[in-house]
Amino acid sequence: MSPKSSAQLPSLFTIATLGSHSALQILKGAKDEGFHTLAVVTPLNERLYSSFAFVDEVIVIPRYGDFPKLDKELNKRKVILVPHGSFVAYLSMEEHKKMTTPYFGNKSVLDWEADRMRQREWLTRAGLKMPRQFTKASEIDRPVIVKLYGAHGGKGYLFVKNPDDFTARASHLLEQRYIMQEYVLGVPVYIHYFYSPLTGKLEIMSMDRRYESNVDSLGRIPLADQEGWDIQPSYVVIGNQPISLRESLLAEAFHMGEAVVRVSRELCGERGLFGAFCLETIVTPESDFFLMEISARIVAGTNLFIDGSPYSYLNYDEPMSTGRRIARELRNALLSNSLDLVLDQSSRIQFDRSAASNGESVAVPGPGVPAN
Ligand code: AMP
Ligand code: AMP
Q1: Please, is 23 exposed, middle or buried when counting C-beta atoms within 10 Å of its C-beta (0-12, 13-18, 19+)?
Q2: Residue 370 — very low, low, confident or very high, per pLDDT cuts 50/70/90?
Q3: Among 7, 104, 140, 157, which is least packed, fewest CB within 10 Å?
């Protein structure tokens, strides 16, 4: 290979993802960091993704579920996959894990994330508060939310008032496919983090609150007019709104992120959770954070901040989305000859190390956030 300057190095690699969810943010960030970019799309999305100048290449597949069939082809090239919510929504866990194309993140975390009982163990071991959980209808002594497994954007969730309500509306559901949680009244705050295995530092990238139909619209109709009208709240996510947290709550938000990363190293293999993740919380009037869920990858709420957020601006003097932060990490890993630290171990790292570093490694620039 002819010697390339460090600045040109990322251009030898392609960052690829499925054309959906947060792909535009990821690919824009990849381009900004100097990578070649690839979107894998369905026919409906081809023209949209091709219309962006930062998308260098598109590959069309009939359905997102066909993505694993590209594994061999992608593996022949210097491709790094950046996963997002559609990987979980459209690929089975088995297929997802079987792929050997270099993959940003740690796939062992998927087993812990996909199983809500294991998530609970992870989050409670990290000292975080979780809503009370019920296993039988007869135990229900307060309003609960019945939540299906998997990332379906709140689809099919049920608000259940009492045991009779459960029998009437939810008893047809198979037990292993849902959990029943105490309904926590408060503000849903989704905190977007990035943990760098290269610098050992955690950053809060941004935050959002979700906008869900119809639950977020019920307040638009006076209660008196709702009476006699059989309205059931639903939690289907429609979009996201930015939120900045009361600053006195920020330290706790930061500590929660640190604790989750620390415990992940005990539970999900020694490398634990790294890269982008999100803690999905409800904050009560007592200012307590109740954890609904953890997402172990970039979440769609970060799409609000393609141009950076008030929080990312505190660490960077340039627009820094979570998508770009991922690409920056990959770039830093390439430049410091430590790509294996940021890729899943299933990744068949066929990248020629000398090609990846020019033989010399470069110090990784840290963002200056206190180490955890
Ligand atoms: P989609 O490609 O829009 O179907 O998204 C794939 C999965 O990501 C969906 O099943 C949702 O669970 C999740 N998702 C998509 N957009 C959002 C969003 N704005 N907020 C939260 N989750 C989302
Ligand atoms: P999740 O799939 O766990 O992220 O939840 C999707 C949405 O359901 C949240 O944004 C909330 O609006 C609602 N939700 C989930 N769990 C609870 C809970 N324990 N109490 C109240 N609302 C909840």
Answers
A1: buried
A2: very low
A3: 7
Question: What distance in Å separates the CA atoms of residue 99 and residue 73, rounded to the nearest whole number?
Answer: 11
64-93: pLDDT as tens digits: 999 999 999 999 999 999 999 999 889 988
Sheet holding 289-295, edge to edge: 235-242, 201-214, 187-196, 275-283, 289-295
∠ CA 317-318-324, rounded to 5°: 130
How many angstroms is it from 351 CA to the middle of ligand 1? 32
CA distance 249 to 181: 24
Q: What are the residues facing 36 on neighbouring strands?
A: 14
State how far the Cα of 226 lies from the Cα of 219, in Å rounded to an integer: 10
Q: Find tokens 């109709």 and name the residue.
A: 221
- Token pair belonging to 281: 């919380």
Test site for ligand 2: of 147, 191, 210, most ligand atoms within 8 A of the Cβ: 147
pLDDT for the residue 364: 55
Q: How many residues does the chain have?
A: 372
Ligand 1 atom at minimal distance to the Cα of residue 84: 8
